[in-house]
Amino acid sequence: MKFVDEYRDQAAAARCAQAIARITTRPWSIMEVCGGQTHSIVKYGIDELLPKAITLLHGPGCPVCVTPLELIDKALQIAARPEVVFCSFGDMLRVPGSGGDLFSVKAQGGDVRIVYSPLDAVKLARENPQRQVVFFAVGFETTAPANAMAVFQAHTQKIPNFSVLVSHVLVPPAIEAILGAPDNRTQAFLAAGHVCTVMGYQEYLPLAKKFRVPIVVTGFEPLDILQGILMCVEQLEQGRAEVENQYARSVQSQGNRPAQDLMAKVFRVVARKWRGVGEIPNSGYSLRDEFAAHDAEARFGVAGYSVDEDSECISGQVLRGVKKPQECPAFGKRCTPERPLGATMVSSEGACAAYYQYRRHEQRSLAAEKPSQDRSQDRSQDRR
Ligand code: SF4
Q1: Domains held by the chain: number
Q2: Same domain, residue pair 23 and 151
């Protein structure tokens, strides 16, 4: 397929991996921010092409994974109300809250619907003025423009029965939180190409300078990722810490100005909780006062609700690159995509789900090679 096959060319990938190996003189840890990049890395075995000195860490860039437990609970409470039509992208329906998921609300009679655009939910509200239509507005800067447009349309077209449950998060504050943490291992970042298509990459310049880290805006195909890694390693080996753009076929320095203007009109920047990570200052969006009438949290009285995360799930450490999914004792045992304990096992972009889909057999074969004493320890972990 044109514009896809070129970026999956095996011979070119091998040449790029050889170039990385040629210039690597010491260990480096590089984090890809986006869950789509994580999925590509694990699916295509990109990490296995690299020299052993290069460690890839998987960052917090899956929007489903970082949506906090209490937001899922709020969605469940709102969706269960008889007057509500609750609209969401499909990947949010299986995310576990403290007492079920949106599929279970639907099974119990809730009117939960999958839509493919927030504007579909606005249309539904316009056509059903007797119902309350709520859209679950989650995601990074990538999905925020369409959600801002939905709120703006509902406001200007005077559609009072449309509201949004907002849980938007922003990438640069998360990068800053990771780099500022005492257990940080990340020495360079692959920034998410689609986020930068909207926002540009000016916001990353002060981060690269403050923390002395290379940041390379990178795409999602195997060759994009390998080239992004090569650009990071070149900078690390040369002692440079700059922002570079591997994904120039989509990203411009200033991003998409009309989209940014619309987002600034509808949203304001606030502190947001990230699932498994905690609250990060200035890391998300909320509706501006002018659009507060479309705020589902206020409309349905769930704004004050909060809940603690599951203590067994270590997805917070996975999302900060401190641990790999297989290091979680529940991985592939008590936690699987069919019965997920944490959000990183739900979404196909989640690191735990990607490792389960493409790497769980490796874990089994490693376990099979262990001496019998180790295997008995594994079984005792299973029973805990
Ligand atoms: S394997 Fe499951 S329990 Fe462990 S970190 Fe991943 S989502 Fe959480």
Answers
A1: 2
A2: no
